[in-house]
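Try this one yourself first.
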């Protein structure tokens, strides 16, 4: 089940809201937990077991850690908890990647497991790991109520594609939150805006990218349209999902962290990663980079820490070599910026720095979205002259998709937000806003009924 689907919009969500506000306050966590498991079971009926195992494991481990705080056994329990989480993630996500790599290196024919990747396993594994680590560090108290912890782990708004919500972010709200109609209204507003970004912009850009990959006439022009289109597509797809998740959380009284802050206006890769998928960057900073020593160590160890974080970031996104290289590409780039390139970029005119960043990001996403490393370099080669300049197919694509590319380019800047803030000060906007939101919802619904391209990119992670 996806947020941008008729089943969710007009059946699951209304029923969940109705149940949530009808049951007594003390049963609201249980209601959310049950509906969240149903939400996950709609697409992954078998892998609901993994959610149960993850929840129960971290609940038991955290209780043991807290009761043995300061003792060696607490550290042993923490290691055990991390091993369970990483064991599940490693088996279901990376087993076939490792087997395939071993087969390629040694010429073996070890059969692959063929196990399907559970949706969202990377997201909820990181969330549960952060919980037990924070209990061990003393940053939060162990949650004694199993239902409350299972609600946190399974909470459907952020379960399968983030943002990565840590237990510390919602600790108080799990036990004492106020569900006000004002929050429901603000949540609906944020949700509809995210839905619009996903359906009206990301889906159209995704269709263009899909058409390019299926085309046998991939010219220089078409390759650049694809590269630019995918960079905008992944942004509106993922940030749209994050907006919907944040809006849904607000409806139920939760304040989820922001995940994007107009990353394409950045002037360096370092700034880009402060603005893109911020909850993932924060997770790696707090649970990998700083524990390794961060930048408070020798330069060699500092560079090693950056390398490790970005190797893991690439692997987190996918079990394939193009993801590994994508992560290492940014790791090397960030090292260079911290050593000398960053100071150079600061001296350059801002327009040059922004062009540098956009070129870097666009090329990186070609690698990110490729079927393999070879396919990525083939596409890049076409972008830089390794194909016919243009033909009728690419000119037709330009004509058809230029408007949505322009809308996406403007929409990725702070301009729409600034315009909305100015309009929000006008009294008439209090009347117009609900009308505009209703229009966006109706338009999205009509597009969903007529269209077939509606996947979320980050579901595969």
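Now uncover the answer:
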């Amino acid at each position: 089940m996806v947020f941008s689907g008729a089943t969710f919009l007009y059946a699951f969500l209304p029923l969940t809201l109705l149940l949530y506000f009808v049951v007594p306050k003390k049963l609201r966590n249980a209601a959310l937990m049950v509906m969240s498991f149903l939400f996950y079971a709609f697409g992954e009926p078998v892998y609901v077991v993994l959610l149960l195992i993850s929840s129960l494991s971290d609940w038991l481990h955290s209780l043991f850690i807290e009761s043995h705080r300061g003792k060696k056994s607490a550290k042993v329990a923490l290691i055990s908890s991390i091993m369970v989480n990483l064991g599940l993630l490693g088996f279901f996500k990376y087993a076939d990647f490792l087997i395939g790599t071993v087969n390629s290196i040694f010429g073996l024919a070890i059969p692959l497991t063929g196990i399907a990747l559970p949706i969202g396993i990377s997201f909820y594994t990181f969330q549960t790991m952060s919980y037990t680590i924070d209990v061990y560090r003393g940053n939060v108290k162990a949650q004694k109520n199993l239902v409350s912890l299972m609600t946190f782990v399974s909470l459907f708004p952020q379960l399968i594609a983030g943002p990565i919500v840590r237990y510390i972010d919602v600790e108080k709200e799990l036990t004492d939150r106020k569900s006000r109609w004002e929050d429901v209204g603000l949540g609906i507003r944020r949700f509809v805006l995210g839905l619009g970004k996903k359906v009206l912009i990301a889906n159209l850009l995704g269709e263009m990218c899909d058409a390019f990959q299926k085309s046998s006439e991939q010219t220089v022009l078409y390759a650049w349209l694809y590269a630019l289109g995918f960079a905008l597509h992944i942004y509106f797809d993922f940030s749209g999902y994050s907006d919907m998740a944040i809006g849904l959380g607000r409806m139920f009284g939760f304040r989820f962290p922001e995940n994007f802050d107009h990353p394409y206006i950045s002037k360096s890769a370092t700034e880009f990663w402060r603005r893109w998928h911020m909850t993932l960057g924060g997770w790696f900073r707090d649970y990998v980079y700083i524990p390794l020593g961060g930048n408070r160590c020798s330069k060699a160890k500092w560079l090693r820490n950056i390398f490790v974080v970005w190797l893991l970031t690439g692997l987190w996104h996918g079990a394939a070599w193009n993801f590994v290289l994508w992560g290492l590409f940014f790791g090397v780039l960030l090292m260079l910026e911290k050593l000398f390139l960053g100071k150079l970029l600061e001296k350059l005119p801002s327009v040059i720095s922004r062009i540098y960043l956009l070129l870097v990001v666009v090329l990186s996403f070609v690698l990110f979205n490729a079927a393999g490393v070879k396919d990525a370099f083939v596409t890049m080669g076409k972008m830089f002259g390794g194909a016919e300049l243009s033909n009728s197919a690419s000119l037709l694509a330009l004509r058809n998709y230029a408007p949505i590319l322009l809308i996406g380019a403007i929409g990725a800047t702070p301009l729409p937000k600034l315009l909305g803030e100015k309009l929000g000060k006008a009294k008439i906007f209090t009347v117009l806003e609900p009308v505009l939101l209703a229009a966006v919802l109706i338009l999205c619904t009509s597009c969903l009924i007529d269209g077939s391209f509606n996947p979320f990119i980050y579901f595969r992670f």
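Discussion: The mean pLDDT is 93. The first helix runs from residue 6 to 22.
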